[in-house]
Amino acid sequence: MTNEFALTLVLFAVYVIECIFLPSAHASLFKCSIRGRWRVSLPTSPITSTYRIVVEGLLPQLGSVFVSEPAPPLISPSGVYCFPGRADTGSAKYIDFADAEPFLSKDCTVLTGSEVVCSSGSAQQAQLVSELLSKVKASESTRRDALITADFQRMLNTQRAARRWRAYQKAAGFLSLGSWTMFGTLVALSAMLAVFRFQAVAAWPLAILILIVIPHTAYVFYRVHLIFFRRKVGDRWKQIVLMFLTPPACIRASDFIAHELFAGFHSLAVSRVLLDDVESRDFAARTLREMMYPLDIGAHNDSSEGAEWAKGKWMTVVWEWMEHEFGDPRQLIDAPRKATAGCVCYCPRCLTQYLFLRNSCSDCPGITVKPFC
């Protein structure tokens, strides 16, 4: 095996690795297909895995993945709901702000001392949550309700998410030139090395082009990343260094920005931006049904007064958002049409229909079925 052949294999392997994305299991994902249609992937079980594997499209800017948040943590004016040890795998407890240690974020996890407050869909959201908790803890009790409500409303700010999406589309156009140029150059370089039996002297013109494309792409990436993530200096320079060390990283420059573009936004707001009216309405209806009919899986005891306040506040904010976006939310959770004339009841959460009367849904633990009127 010649050195040139080994280099070609290394570049190919590096590019394939760049196409693999490991988002948090707590995140909701929006992935673009080759045809330009968006698909939603809801959070997986954090008990089985902390992360999940997502393969993005091999072609530049196709198959991009956007991360959003499924729900905020349980925060009330008096305290926050925490999980001792690993998040979402043990019994939970409520910690009063007066007794809580300073709040910090580490990767996608929010901590207070040794207690895990929650695991977010992205490091950016974990940082936002830790800042909110610190602000609520330091504020007067009379202002805490307003601070929490404002943060919940920020997660559902569709107009702000839409502006961010439009700005990304414009910026991605500048990055696409460098991405496609680098992709085409590396493909041509590999082809020429193969034709000329991996003699590097035959491909030196393309190598010079690569040396021109790398700094150009790095500069554009720097400017675009600065617009969306001004405070993430370390991540910005880390990616720029990676572009110079491994040129295939230039091809995925826009994807690196896309991953956390909607960090801090709830998946409902993102769905209104990326999906069409019918799809976003169906997604909103599904989300509302899941909120109104939570599964009884017996994993945690979150019936404390503070947790109930947080869930009630979040439901109120979501209900008001849906009224603004779709009209009366009750229309979203109406009984479905009968699949057959013999159906007598249905599950209000998953909409499974049954031909015989029964008490609960076979797929949704703890959910009582409803009869058709």
What does this structure look like?
By secondary structure, the protein is α+β, with helices and mostly antiparallel strands. The protein has two domains: 1-334, no CATH class; 337-373. The chain has ten helices and 13 strands.
Q: Strands, helices and their partners?
A:
Blueprint: H1 3-18, E1 20-21, E2 28-32, E3 38-41, E4 54-55, E5 65-68, E6 79-84, E7 93-96, E8 103-106, E9 109-112, E10 115-119, H2 123-138, H3 141-155, H4 158-195, H5 204-228, H6 233-245, H7 253-258, H8 267-274, H9 277-292, H10 305-326, E11 345-346, E12 353-354, E13 370-371
Antiparallel strand pairs: 1-4, 2-3, 2-5, 6-7, 6-10, 8-9, 9-10, 11-12, 11-13
Q: Nutshell version of this structure?
A:
By secondary structure, the protein is α+β, with helices and mostly antiparallel strands. Helix content is 47%, strand content 12%. The strands form four sheets. The protein has a five-stranded antiparallel beta sheet with strand order 7-6-10-9-8, with helices on one face. Strands 3-2-5 form a three-stranded antiparallel beta sheet, with helices on one face.
